[in-house]
Structures
1.
Amino acid sequence: MIRDYYFMQGKPKTKHSHKGGESCRNVPFLTCLQFMFAVYATSLLLYMSPSVDFRGWVAEHVHSFISMAPHSVIRAEEIAAPVPDPTVDTACVHEKIDFEQKRSNDSVTIKLKKELYREVLDFQSRTFGAETLPELMAMESKWSLKGGNLPKITVILNHFKRKTLCAQIDLLLQQTIPFHHVWVVSFGSPIEASLKKIVENYNNSRISFISSSYDFKYYGRFQMALQTEADLIYILDDDMIPGRKMLEILSHVSGTEKYRNAVLGSIGRILPFRQKDFTFPSYRKFRSKEAGLYLPDPAYDITLDRVVKVDFLSSSWFLSSELIKTLFIETPFTFMTGEDLHLSYQLQKYRDAGSYVLPADPYDKETWGDSEHRLAYVSETTVIFKDIVQVRDDQWWKALSTGYVTQWASMYPQNIDALFYAHSLDEVKALAPLIDKFRTTTGKKAYLVVSGGKFCPCEDAAPILKWLKSVCKERRFKVLDLGINSLSGISNSEVPILQAVYASMKGIIKIHNPSVVISVSDIDSNVRKALMLATETNTNGTTLVLLPRESISKSLWMADLRSTALPYWNRMKLCINIITQNRASSLLRLLNSLKEAYYLGDTIPITFNMDSKVDEPTLQLVKSFEWTHGPKIIRRRIIQGGLIRAVSESWFPSSDDDFGLLLEDDIEVSPFYYLWIKYAILAYHYDPKVSLPELSSISLYTPRLIEVVKERPKWNATEFFKHIHPNTPYLHQLPCSWGAVFFPKHWREFYAYMNMRFTENAKENPVQIPKSRTNGWQASWKKFLIDMMYLRGYVSLYPNFPNQTSFSTNHMEPGAHISAKDNVVQHNKTDFEVPLMRQDFTKLLPNGKLPPASKIPSLNLFNRAVSLKGLKAAGAKLVKDVIQCETTQIVVVNHETGLPSHCAAF
């Protein structure tokens, strides 16, 4: 054989006389032959191995070596395409595109679409910025081609019937930065064998084929994405052929601080806007500006030169592998369609992640996400099955009504009065009267949110409110069904319920900005936590109101408050302060009346202030008394202080929201007293649109006498104000000592004033109000308060109902003043004891509600009609305040300390 070899090589044979010498000469040749065979075998194994792309490696490096200039350095963007393989070309079948890009000649629609696009772009540019492609690429990024920090990117190509796989893979192999893996997925495809052959012929270990005879529809590719170990995922429909620079652009933008928590794409849609009739149109409605936008839209000559935030992306999605998990938090509305909307909806709802369409360079096709846009674009005139349009309309409306903040919602934030939340049908029944009152009150907006699913479906809730079931299908805000079952399913944990309610309500509150969210106080504890978290996230100050079921029918006046006052519902803190000593039976009557009142679920602390000579029955009663509405505090003086100290030192405000109700033990209150106090304080004190700084207290009692006049004539407020309205409340310069709430700022002011003016001898008091009986009052805290209110023009709000029916009454029992030995004034019980309010008082008010502050009449100390300015003028005329002012000025105080600050004109 060796001899033949040499002959075949054309070399002469040499004969040797010794056999051993011939063998020695053959050894080197045999060794060389063995080495060549080993190299050949190794190469063959590498070539056939599925884990090593030997052919591609050789082709790339040979091509690079040939094209490389001496001493040059290869950059990623200079890597050329692989040498074409004839076996791949024979397997490829290319999509035939024999149609032109559709363009509309409807000038009306073109105008409407462009107007809306400009409005969207202007808004986004003003609020969070809309960068051009060069500006995006100039931003600092975690993933940098120049810095060499490249991400691992898994590309998922979803194929069914289109013949675009070769075009996609070819361009992905030519990207300016390499991909980590390409997964070609085929679920139930009729051309599965053809697709598989193409992938096999590429013989690239980074390109894999994944198939199933079962059609996993549109969600299957996203389920596959859960398996990737890459940093980023690029999912492409079979109609998207990306330009060579797309992976570089997408990874760079996703690495910026601004867009790292986002999903990026090349095509997107902005969902419908609300129409003038307050309904939302179909996203396919023709010739409608409110139908939304498809971006970019060649049919209407809309191209993108800046990044645009959209409501959902279509055809391609680029996002981090961590974000992809969010798609499956909630069960989709349907698995038949709408995965694009569901992804963006879930990302925003649970990750606060936005969806953005990136701009492209119109002169550089390598920056296009869809280099053949005719494949991806579906025009307005393309036939779309009506049932699919209806399903997608239902899906996006479901998303919007469960908290998806669309571009419409961002551009046009709503402001409503109330959102009601009901987790069960029983809660709908309980809330029904208040829901009806809000929705029937002129100028009020209120919607109902139900949990849906097995808990409280809209179709069952609507009839309870006497609404048609069709309201559950209308694209109009009225009742919003959260469909809680889509998240929770079967679980013994509280987390799914809490998460579902919180995530949806957070978005709904952000869209509608309600003044209050109202629910029942005994709602499920996890739902309560979710509602609390959701309301706290709203920067516009939404307040959660939890009402006891038995109090809801007594809270209908809530709908008559301004939307600006409603958020202060929980701000007011009332403290009940009882002054008592040795009238245990009277105290028991007062305590029973307090327990029977309606408190709307508010926390109300109660404090007992007892002088040193308190008797044992009173001590026993106070100790045994159970108060379920808040803490009970007991205070007892060591040294007898008398009534003036007992009252004035019974309470001091801890904040500007701390209000003090002072009650002597011979008082009795109405069950509605707290409702009157809260209604009045919210309407006239907290409402930022109301300016009534003169209001220093609210009386529970309506007097029948003019007590500051020597003759003490009888007086009937209902008769006096009948020309305005017989039951109008009124402002009076006289403070009430038989049941009144005092305001914190004015009470601090009173403390400072009394400290500067207190004297046991009434004659030493420099303030002598002309023709007032109060000038001779001694040992009376009320006398000093009257003086201060007269000098500074302060007033108290009084109720006014038939027969002086009030929220408190005085039983005129013997004490420090009544029937005292040194009191020569005779007190007729019928002149002071008034009936208590036992019905819904709001029905008696003018127009069934408290009148505007500007419409409330005011009286001076002597029950004469005088304007608020006139009251201040009378006080300034005395020139007897604690600091000297001109007759056209009154004292201004520091409300934090109550001390006088300076004089100012009124």
Note: The longest helix spans residues 19-48.
2.
Amino acid sequence: MLGELNSKKDVVFLILSYPPFNSRSNETHIAWFQDVLEINHKVREPHDKEKKVKSSELYSEIKRLLHHSIHDIEAHVPADIIVDMCEWRSPWHATTNKPTLDFCVDDFMIRHLLQYIQIPEIRTIMISEATDNTLLFRIKKLPPVIQMFDIVIHINANFLAVKDIEDRIIEELGFSKFSRGEADKFLRSQNFMILLYQFDSWIDLNDLGTGWWNSDKTQKIAGFTSDSSMPADLKISRHDHLLLWNLFCRNVGKLVVHSSSSQPLAVDVWRQCCGHLLATALIARALKDVNDVSIWQHAFRAIGFLPMTSHSIEDRILFNALAFVLGHLGSAANKCLKYCASYLEMERTHKVDLLESWMKEDLIGTLDEGEQIVQQLVNVVLLESFQNGESIRMVDEVRKELVNFYKAEMNPLLVELDGKGLMEAPKSEAWKEANEMYLMNNKISKLPDNPKCPVLSKLFLQGNLQLRVISPSFFQCMPILQILNLSQTKIKCLPQSLFKLVQLRKFILRSCRLFKELPAEIGDLCLLEVLDLEETEIIDLPVTIGNLPKLTNLKVSFYLPVNGNRKNYSSNRIIPQNLISRLVLLEELSIDVNPEDERWKATIQDILPEVCCLKRLHFLKLHLPKVSLLNDFRDLSCMNFRFIVGNHLKCVISRLPHELVIKFGEQESCLKYLNGEGIPSEIKEVLGHSTAFFLDRHQTATSLSKFGVKALENLKFCVLEECNQIVALINENDADHGDGILQSLVYLSVHNMKNLRSVWEGESLRRRTLFFLKVLTLYSCPKLTTVFTFDLVQNLYHLEELLVEDCPEINCLMLPTDKQRRTTWLLPNLKKMSLHYMPKLVSLCGGERVSPSLEWVSFYDCPSLKIQFLNEFSSYNLKVIIGEADWWSALKQNESEVWEPNKSKRLEPNISEGRRISIPGKADQPSGSEGLKPQNLDGIFFPIKRDIDLRTQLAAINDQLQARMQITEPTKQSGGPVVEAGTSSKWKQVA
């Protein structure tokens, strides 16, 4: 009977770990759970005369606990499935996508652990069917685990008895096994978590460390085993966490979910639900017996949609699932559901009363029609039916998200409809009492002619790409509007009513590429503080801008028409003289120009002295055609700047990934020097204040270090492109003093350098050269034969990401070294490595082991890279391996021929079974390398297709991983394996 009670306890708390249950108040279940644990502890207590518990009392208590009500759970999970789980029967459906399911199930198991780990009565945890130590190391690194426990250790407990395990734990803590009393006392004073890998299931976890427990501390022992027959306070089973897949298959239909055309999409749709039980049920019911692949694809996109809201990921998933379901309901059912969201009683409503209400509101014509709609809404889980169908209610979570969905009509004070796919703006009534209107990222093409908005203060319309015309009277009745955003629309001109908005403080018109002329009436907006016209195509700036005395932020972009039909200018100036000097409160000024516009050369000569006299200015973006113009700036130490210096030829098209250009512009102080010759002193002076440097098409420099150690010492971000005289990025002979070159650099990206032969050269490497570098990318360097020397690798301790692409002469990343100089690990902090289009690459680092921290590796078009390269991996943190499917298949086919004969020659970690090796700041690594066979890595291998753009596929894989990380890790981690969307510099389809 106690076993039956514990089975019910484990199943109930598994289900309660899923959304939406995990965000509900579950005090009744928690109290019951604690009572069950107390019974277990009583049974395990020594049965001496003083503590002996009467069997009759225990029997009565267990019987009472077995009758604990779980009706709230059975509303979502059918009772027969719960019974099967409690009785160890297996209802699960098979699938050919087991690696994908396993990846998600690991996330569910982690969430299960985090949900209950803080309950003090839980001391022992059994985690079953953990096929390798990946889950163990993920748990060990979880922020809540790190914060909660003083000590977190793991032990290989394979074939060890209780006393041997305890001795191993004591030794791991630094005590001798003969100092048992001292170790026991130490553990009683600590918050500890002990993880036992390959734990033998015949050992009772409760027999371990009986002298270690302290009720005032948080103390846990978790066993990872292949089976879960022994008792534990909390059991987490991989098998049981296939519950959601079982529910999904049952609701969709076996024939549909296992058909050859639907199954891959079915797994993808299920995965997108991220373990949300209610969202999974909603989607599955909506897709029941659906064989149309296009509808499945629509469901996949709909659930994965990320609206620009502050909702939690659970709320977002449920909202998206509801939006998909509502889109497939009829008009009448939608109206009836909207009524239920507003007026249905929280506890229950008699169905007859509900139907009568619908009739009174003219939502239905007949009772039979109402019965059909009720049944339809119950079938898709939007309503719940109970008491033999006589009563109806709505789940609280569904009601909450429906209110959000219908908010424009149900709560007119705040209209928040961003990213909802609206084709039309809300009706005029919705505007009347709204304080704020969020209508961005929709498909609105027309706005009301003259909405009455007496209290509207904020209006966001950006991202409506179909919006071309605004009615002349649209802004007529918005007397207190203060913030207006019309960015990313196709408007060509502004209505006159806009210039009557005398309270307007912020006007944002970014990325309106059809907008060409700013009217002089802009000067009537006398309270305007922010005017953003970046990425528009205005011809010039009206002199009336000078009538905006409160302006603090001005961003403009100027472009000339290219069709020859140009305006007759009364002036050869883009910005009128003495205009900038009148804007004395300016704090941020950004001016983008067309490089071919000859007017700018005259304009910059006039306005530069005015700019330099702005005392409040702390951000400045300018294009300076001549290096000598830098002499006008006396002090750049207190200013963030974006300077483009040199002759910027528009006809030359940059081949840099767009994302890299954006990332460069996000740095604090940026200098882009293009088409230069020599190393002018003015450039070196500004470079000394810069945190980012972009050297573009320099004509004469042979190395980056030619710019001087002092000028480069503050750089954190550096990009080089088509500097064809550079043969080495760093030449130590260029430095006559200091501890190193580029010693603050964090990010280095090199592109299209046709004569580059090495990253570093010199007689001896200074100890801090590139010491803090975290990201190194090398694209299209046809003469580059190697990336690292052994000495340079020793400096790159902090390197986290390496990308080498289209460097066809490289056959090994590092020059070979003699055995006496070998080290334990190369690049110990490297987390991500991507190697693409390298046909001669045969080895990573010549047999040396690479980074114990590696999480992401990507290979493409590296046909010479054979199975031996896996010998160089020493990381058990791998989450992703990417490559062509046929390349991976070839590795596995050659495994028996190549792997086993070379097994004795492989480089094994210099540590014993179950022991740890310490690396500063890094997680412990298990011993051995048997897990790094291709057959054991299939679960994390992501195939790349040759007929789809490589960059697109890498971005999609990254999106999948990031979504999973948001589910399983409450605190977002930095430094994870994130792909830049612009990884591929070839910008081509993979043939």
Note: The radius of gyration is 33 Å.
